[in-house]
């Protein structure tokens, strides 16, 4: 099972360049997420998509845009990369549960290491 | 803003020792999850606890949710090198769209 697949795994950008991180899940999940992970900061939510056709800002959305292309795919775009966006980016997905007390299991991709110089 | 404080931030122990990792908040969460992350990988869910006072066991790992649903602990008995990794707690509110993650405890178990 592939689960959550994100590409590329490694990327080096120059300040001001743009790029798109791609993410796809094969679990028929409704919700998808983009997180960034920085040393000492933990995982922070950038954007999420509760269902196909909807996207919402998370904790740190500035400098990013997202597209929920279809149920499987959720891309993250950096329009003008900045050194502060150097980070490890994780895409994730979960099945939308109707029971708020059950706790959705979030499945993460393997991460994309982005360096902006 | 809901915050989760994890302690200790770093822990290095010898194989066979026991350890406890803590996750504390001033906020109430409807559920609390623990993830383990290995180098170069994404976090993987270990357990979800949803009831105050709940205790769950996963082989040598014991997870407890505080009675007031504001804190949780992870206890590992007889740690092994394979337990090495970053342990993250994450609290869920009414909707798990916005899980709040702690900063993690980096555990190293030396053979």
Judged by helices, strands and strand pairing, the structural class of chain A is: mainly beta
The geometry of chain B reads as: globular
Q: What's the shape of chain A?
A: globular
Distance between the terminal alpha carbons of chain A, to the nearest Å? 35 Å
Distance between the termini of chain B: 40 Å
Strand runs of chain B, count: 11
Overall description:
The complex is a heterodimer of chains A (117) and B (111). In chain A, 0% of the residues lie in helices and 50% in strands. Chain A has strands at 4-7, 10-13, 19-25, 31-38, 42-49, 56-57, 64-68, 74-78, 87-94, 107-108, 112-116. In chain A, strands 2, 4, 5, 6, 9, 10 and 11 form a seven-stranded mixed sheet that branches. Chain A has a four-stranded antiparallel sheet with strand order 1-3-8-7, with no helix packed on it. Chain B has 111 residues and is mostly beta strands. In chain B, the strands form two sheets. In chain B, strands 2, 4, 5, 9, 10 and 11 form a six-stranded mixed sheet that branches. In chain B, strands 1-3-8-7-6 form a five-stranded antiparallel sheet, with no helix packed on it. The mean pLDDT of chain B is 91. Chain A binds chain B through residues 4, 31, 33, 40-45, 48, 50, 56, 58, 90, 92, 94, 97, 100-111, and chain B through 30-31, 33, 40-45, 48, 50, 88, 90, 92, 94-99, 101-104.
